[in-house]
């Protein structure tokens, strides 16, 4: 194994041309310095210095080695400097996997404040479904995922950030058309709009349907919840969406929440990272920031 200290001694002796000056710079004795040079020359089986009355002078072979050692030590210094920047949040990169819906309605508002706090971080965002995002995490293409709580898996940890509520919504005109009233229920008469079947939110609502023996065949399916929200706003039917993401429409009356019995249980969204791989400082900083702002 390479002894880096030997090369640091070699570098300083070559740079100063003097054992005494190098010893002073390295805070070690001249005899110890001489032993280190002799050890390196023995190991490499080549003479690196000519010892002259005026000091230490590099041989031709020593000059060749010095060129590479100087570059190597410069890279080490650069690497150590980069680590200091990482520790002080002056550098860093984060690759985040997130669904389009969570990205727009949850991540972006948080990201705006995070970037103002940590302006030097480079952030890459990849929009995929929750299940696709988890696959990217497993393959190392993202550092963390912001997702609704997935099925338990021994390879990753889920850190809860907040809870969300799935609800059915429609506009008033559509509800009038199907003569809806709270006591009648909507499942027999409504036209439903759901996310596509491979979406984890769709799978969650299908689980609710199955548990309560509800038969629903969607007339419209989309991979984007915002499409369902827009369709509901123009009276195309009843959409299953996340309540927290349509709070404005529910407040101003563009959409109405349709109560169901029993209520759809709330679920969690959070950050997922691989269990046996330590997150980078930047990724951990982001996780802590999101968790703390939601506490």
Automatic annotation (TrEMBL):
InterPro entries, A to Z: LysR_HTH_N, LysR_subst-bd, WH-like_DNA-bd_sf, WH_DNA-bd_sf
Pfam families in UniProt: HTH_1, LysR_substrate
Sorted UniProt keywords: DNA-binding, Transcription, Transcription regulation
CDD domains according to UniProt: PBP2_LTTR_substrate
Molecular function per GO: DNA-binding transcription factor activity; transcription cis-regulatory region binding
PROSITE patterns: HTH_LYSR (PS50931)
Domain HTH lysR-type: 1-59
SUPFAM superfamilies: Periplasmic binding protein-like II, Winged helix' DNA-binding domain
Protein family (similarity comment): Belongs to the LysR transcriptional regulatory family.
Protein name as annotated: Transcriptional regulator, LysR family
Species the sequence originates in: Ethanoligenens harbinense (strain DSM 18485 / JCM 12961 / CGMCC 1.5033 / YUAN-3)
């Amino acid at each position: 194994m390479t002894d880096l200290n030997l090369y640091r001694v070699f570098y300083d002796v070559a740079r100063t041309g003097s054992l005494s000056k190098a010893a002073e710079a390295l805070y070690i004795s001249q005899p110890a310095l001489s032993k280190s040079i002799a050890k390196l020359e023995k190991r490499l089986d080549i003479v690196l210095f000519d010892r002259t009355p005026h000091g230490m002078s590099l041989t031709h072979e020593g000059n060749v080695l010095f060129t590479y050692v100087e570059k190597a030590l410069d890279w080490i210094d650069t690497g150590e400097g980069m680590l200091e920047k990482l520790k002080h949040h002056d550098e860093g990169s984060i690759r985040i996997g997130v669904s389009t819906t969570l990205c727009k309605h949850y991540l972006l508002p948080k990201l705006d404040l995070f970037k103002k706090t940590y302006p030097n971080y480079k952030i890459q965002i990849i929009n995929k479904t929750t299940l696709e995002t988890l696959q990217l995490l497993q393959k190392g293409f993202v550092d963390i995922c912001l997702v609704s709580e997935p099925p338990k898996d021994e390879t990753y940890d889920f850190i809860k950030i907040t809870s969300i509520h799935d609800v059915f919504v429609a506009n008033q005109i559509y509800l009038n058309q199907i003569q809806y009233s709270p006591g009648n229920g909507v499942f027999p008469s409504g036209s439903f709009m759901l996310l596509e079947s491979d979406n984890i939110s769709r799978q969650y609502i299908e689980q609710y349907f199955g548990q309560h023996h509800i038969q629903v065949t969607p007339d419209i399916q989309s991979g984007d919840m915002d499409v369902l929200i827009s369709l509901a706003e123009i009276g195309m039917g009843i959409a299953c969406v996340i309540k927290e993401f349509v709070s404005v429409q529910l407040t101003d009356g563009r959409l109405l929440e349709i109560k169901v019995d029993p209520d759809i249980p709330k679920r969690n969204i959070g950050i997922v990272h691989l269990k046996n791989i330590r997150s980078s400082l930047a990724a951990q900083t982001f996780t802590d920031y999101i968790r703390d702002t939601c506490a």
